[in-house]
Amino acid sequence: MEPNKVVLGRYELLSQIARGGTSRVYLAKDLRLDRRVALKMLFQELSTDTSFVERFRREAQAAANLNHPNIVSVYDWGESDSTYFIVMEYVDGRSLSSLLRAEGHLAPFEAANIGSSVASALAYAHRHGVIHRDIKPGNVLITSDGHVKVADFGIARALGADDSITQTGLVMGTATYFSPEQAQGHGADGRSDIYSLGVVLYEMVAGSPPFLGDTPVAIALQHVKETPPALESVVPDVPPAYAAIVHKTMEKDAGSRYPSAGELADDLERFKLGKPVAAADVPTTAVPSQYVAPTDHTSVVRQIELSELPEPPEPPRRRPIRVETKPPKSKNPIYILGILLLVIVLILIVFFVGRGLGYFGAPVQFPVPQVGGETLTQAENQLSSVGLNANVVYSFGKAPNGTVVSQKPSNGNVDAGSSVTLYVSKGMPTVKVPKVTGDSLTDATNILSSLGLKVNAQGVFSHKPANMVLTQNIAADTYRPQGSVISITYSDPNASVQVPDLVGLTQNQAILQLGQKNLTVGTVTQQASSTIQSGSVINSSPQPNQMVDVGTAINLIISSGPANITMPRVINYTQDFALTTLQGSPYNFVVTVIDVQSCSQDVGNVVDQSPLGGVSTSPGSSVTIYVGVSSGTTTTSSTTTTTSVLPSVTTSSTTTTNPPSTSTTACP
Asked: What is the largest CA-CA distance in the chain?
């Protein structure tokens, strides 16, 4: 591939930045997301080798599943021009190997700072079932602002996965940084990565790796059978705690190393804080060694068979000892000796049992309380109550700040006044949340993930460009613990939208709101309503708050005002009955009562009404009823007005001289 070539129409190659045993690495530009990336391209002559292709594919899958601030991210992989490629995060900085070539060696504190970041990355990878198997300075990248990232999981494999791809008799990795088990072709696990990191920790301070040779096989043999020169003999002023950590990581027996990369990271953090480290003193024997510039033997190394190692010398044969037996002189000494031995055994039993109970000057012992999960104050109080002291070691972790994560010793009995080491969580380290609104969804996710933050992304409809981040629930420049969830929304033209609540809006207002949601207006029907004013929305279909696709037609039901009702007939009924009927639901009429002279049989009854019964009218209209009074008396008119609430009635009387002709009745 030549620079300026575009791979798959998306990745423009700018320049070659590295070349390895199986591939080239280019600085490229992602034309779609407008960002710089690193593109690793497998050599074409290897693309026909199915084992290499499968290993290359597995590299992409293994690395793509690892999302950690100290691990180089993998974005994409594919095939182009009969070969395969991987697209990775571009790290603007330099490798640890180039830093060591320029500086010669580093101060122990600086080396521990780099080592703890690498160990944290390995701990995360090991928890996800991936081992690196090629930890070396060339695969440790340092950004311009000092951030450490581990690269090239090219020979990593999933723990427990099918290993048929690894060829028989071959060991993958770099001989200078091999673990003894890798050099012998045995299975590698997380402790193998710890050994390789120990070699890097050694080299950063000493300026040269512990084992050098003319060939990879010669170097690998030294890892198997040679003791590395004591770091104190090479760097006399190295802190003993740092040397103890390095020696523990480089134990020949994997079971004697740190059980996990996380514990190595914690010990390096304790060293940086000036606290006692958990690494026990590792006895080493310094051997003469001539230090030259390190040689990077990245290759496929022939498996070192155990038969190639020198056999241990056979122990000298001893001549058989002839024992002359003589007949016993007497049986009495044997009996006496047996009795004496029995007495001695009884005395010893009594003595040790007594010491266990606190007698014979033995120190008093107490069972160690189990304080895991307690707060530091609670744990210290429990230890103090049984005469024990607390030695506190702090470290970052997922447990809440101030919580005891583990203790040492964790069980058994200890002497009064002894110390119990409490490993206390400082919580997750906090990071400053960046501003990601306006960024693309991919960029925002990568930025937040690189800081150890989790992302909860939800697509919503918007007229903004597709995949643009619209909102974030945690404001920028706010500090949050690593592992916190940041919720973001991004523009998705195809996302479902929520039907707005249009009830009570005018028809024009409803149409405007639907247009803003990218919804259309369906059918519009009229319906009478006594609660929604005419011209306003009574309801919509689909219902408000329902999620629908963009462009869905929303049907509207518009109020035509209250429905007309038929005027009831109340003539010949009593005044009270008429008022109750006309003022009650659904009529709610405003009633005016007018008294008219009438025959005795009509006194107190309605003799006429206006409008007449059977007429169509609207609720709340005005109605006049004419009520009979005794003839020969002065006729008065009583006007009664009402609202829909009964029995609130206001009556006023006026003199009527000319009642309607309909109100007069001829008496018999």
From this structure: 168
